[in-house]
């Protein structure tokens, strides 16, 4: 892929990988340029989403981005807070993330996953106006859907090692298999 092709992907959107009643709906911040160009979520080779998903036990093997629709068979889905593709998440304005949080809430209300996993604490804080949120389970819910904030799997988020990232994904995987509290 050429720099020109990547530049052409700026502003494109990706189709959600979503269905009703998922166990976990993973929510990225927004598509990167390579994802927008390929049409597949988390497509940049340095992105650690697919390795963490497998290392944590969510998938029986490491999926390639082009296999993203196979996640539905495992009760998993993918969406984004902001729809517009950018080179870096910090190119998004706060109002774009806030508007994305409202659209995300509507998606969750419509599809009712057991868990919403937002990949990026800073994006979650802005989208849901929760400046004190930390990585991990949140007290906030959307209807019956519980929320877990995961670290961003972007290679730019280097202070989360691959092992630590997989461990946090694993905590969510364990929680997603437990029966909800009565």
From TrEMBL:
Keywords: DNA damage, DNA repair, Glycosidase, Hydrolase. Pfam families: UDG. The keyword DNA repair applies. Its EC number is 3.2.2.28. Residues 15-178 form the Uracil-DNA glycosylase-like domain. The keyword Glycoprotein does not apply. It comes from the Bacteria. GO terms for molecular function: hydrolase activity, acting on glycosyl bonds. InterPro entries: MUG/TDG, Uracil-DNA_glycosylase-like, Uracil-DNA_glycosylase-like_sf. This is G/U mismatch-specific DNA glycosylase.
């Amino acid at each position: 892929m050429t720099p020109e092709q990547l530049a052409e992907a700026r502003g494109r959107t990706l189709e959600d990988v979503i269905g009703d009643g998922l166990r976990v709906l993973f929510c990225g911040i927004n598509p990167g340029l390579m994802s927008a160009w390929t049409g597949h979520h988390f497509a940049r080779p340095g992105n650690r989403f697919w390795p963490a998903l497998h290392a944590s036990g969510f998938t029986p093997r490491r999926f390639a981005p082009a296999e993203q629709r196979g996640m539905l068979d495992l009760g998993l889905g993918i969406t984004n807070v902001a729809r517009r593709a950018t080179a870096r998440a910090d190119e998004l304005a706060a109002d774009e993330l806030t508007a994305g949080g409202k659209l995300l809430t509507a998606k969750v209300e419509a599809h009712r996953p057991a868990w919403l996993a937002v990949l990026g604490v800073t994006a979650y804080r802005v989208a849901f106006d929760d400046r004190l949120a930390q990585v991990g389970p949140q007290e906030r819910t959307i209807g019956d859907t519980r929320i877990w904030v995961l670290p961003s799997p972007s290679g730019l988020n280097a202070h989360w090692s691959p092992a630590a990232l997989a461990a946090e994904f694993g905590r969510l995987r364990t929680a997603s298999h437990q029966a909800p509290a009565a």
